Amino acid sequence: MLSSLVPLQLPSRMQTHLWYMLPNEVKSESLLKHYTQLPSQSEKDTIFGMQSDELKMKNALLARTLVRTTVARYHTNNNNNHTVIDPRSLKFKKNVYACGVTVNVPVGIDVEDKTRKMRHDVLSLAKRFYSSEEVKFLSSIADMEAQRKEFIKLWTMKEAYVKALGKGFSASPFSTFSIIRSEAEGYNLCGKAEERVGGWKFRLLELAASSHYAAICIGGEEAMTVIIHRTIPFVEDELISDWKLL
């Protein structure tokens, strides 16, 4: 028996609600059939146009389901009838889907597989895509496995920032900005002269139940707090407390 979505209050300013789902946890055919009722007609046309690739079609359906159900949780419990949902605040990727919800601030979410293997040398890739300061940082890491992980962490945060801007990779090349770790402030965004660029906050997370890094980037100078839920929509929601801030 399917349960109802629990209505929620919108996050406070500088608070991010992160919802994620793992596609391999959704195995029920009846549940998937229920999910097909949620997308718009244009979304259905896109999803069912993938019938030649069953896995791709399922993943597209789950991604749209997460978007639709996340919006519904907040939209139905909000007394402000003029709420506008910005679709840029809803991001999903690969075999983990994640939605970030904020109020009146831009947000970007990215998820990357932390076990991902590189086809090319890490430093060669870094010199191609990253800033000189980031290349210098990666070059200082002697252990190749640690170097690979740091490369992926940087990529995840850079993707999140570009998504928060509402731009693609070509419009904001990764080499034009740096993300530098600060012991006091976490991760800082820096421009070409390696000067800190204010107005953005980053959080890099490691989800205990997942082999993925998740990065959140939001606009603003205040401290960001994060609340994380894992969900199988209409089946179960779990408040996640065992995530690790990196």
UniProtKB/TrEMBL annotation:
<keyword id="KW-0808">Transferase</keyword>
<dbReference type="Pfam" id="PF01648">
    <property type="entry name" value="ACPS"/>
</dbReference>
<dbReference type="InterPro" id="IPR037143">
    <property type="entry name" value="4-PPantetheinyl_Trfase_dom_sf"/>
</dbReference>
<dbReference type="InterPro" id="IPR008278">
    <property type="entry name" value="4-PPantetheinyl_Trfase_dom"/>
</dbReference>
<dbReference type="GO" id="GO:0008897">
    <property type="term" value="F:holo-[acyl-carrier-protein] synthase activity"/>
</dbReference>
<dbReference type="GO" id="GO:0019878">
    <property type="term" value="P:lysine biosynthetic process via aminoadipic acid"/>
</dbReference>
<dbReference type="GO" id="GO:0005829">
    <property type="term" value="C:cytosol"/>
</dbReference>
<dbReference type="GO" id="GO:0000287">
    <property type="term" value="F:magnesium ion binding"/>
</dbReference>
<dbReference type="InterPro" id="IPR050559">
    <property type="entry name" value="P-Pant_transferase_sf"/>
</dbReference>
<feature type="domain" description="4'-phosphopantetheinyl transferase">
    <location>
        <begin position="106"/>
        <end position="217"/>
    </location>
</feature>
<protein>
    <recommendedName>
        <fullName>holo-[acyl-carrier-protein] synthase</fullName>
        <ecNumber>2.7.8.7</ecNumber>
    </recommendedName>
</protein>
